[in-house]
Amino acid sequence: MSSLMASQKVMQHYLSALLTDDGATETSLVEDAKTQELNRLLAQASSLTQAPQLEAKPVIAPVTDVQIQSRDIPIAERLSTIAVIPPATVTPPKSAAKAYRQGPFQALFFSVAGLTLALPLKELGGIHQLTEINSLFGKPAWFKGVMLYRQQKISVVDSARWVMPEKYEQNLLESINYQYVIMLGTSNWGLACETLINTVTLQQEDVKWREIDGKRPWMAGLIKKHMCVLVDVDAMINLLNRGQDIHALAGSKNYRSGI
Known about the structure:
alpha+beta; 8 helices
């Protein structure tokens, strides 16, 4: 410790001498002697304070049995043991809800043999004047025939016979006066009707919607204020394509009771 303190004093004197304004001759005379003394003391101090350094040897991790075994396992098997997070299952989107089931919508009201029906305007394919109809053999009774309109063959439905066959009697048959054909969506099916009443804007709460598949799937719901049926165009097209009417549906066990 005394040697370290002595070396510090020598260093202080040496630095003081360099920083003072003493003559260069005096400084040069003592410079060599002090420098030698400083070096000697610093060498002794460093030998006392510095601890011997140990040579660092690299640590080699032992090769374990697991590593040895993994080298012998084929790459395909090793990859199969790695936990892989499966990709998220993509659920296909459900079919889009009908456009008129969101917010207010407009509906066309028309009458058939005193019965008022309504059809969403967004699913209306067009309205034509009823012209000459060509009957076809082997078709259901409710199939009036085919009407030509600008090279399009329209399959005309006797709406009264299809919707309420139980009331379709001779008196009703003689009194019906069809004037128009209401096209169902983009299909070739058209409903014969007597009168076009008007178009009405409806709110969702104005309709008692059908919640289950009843024996009348062609009914989307009941319009409360007007006490009339709102037609489910897609369901009606499906039934017409299959040649089914109310009689067939009423006797089918595949339909539950309901609207």
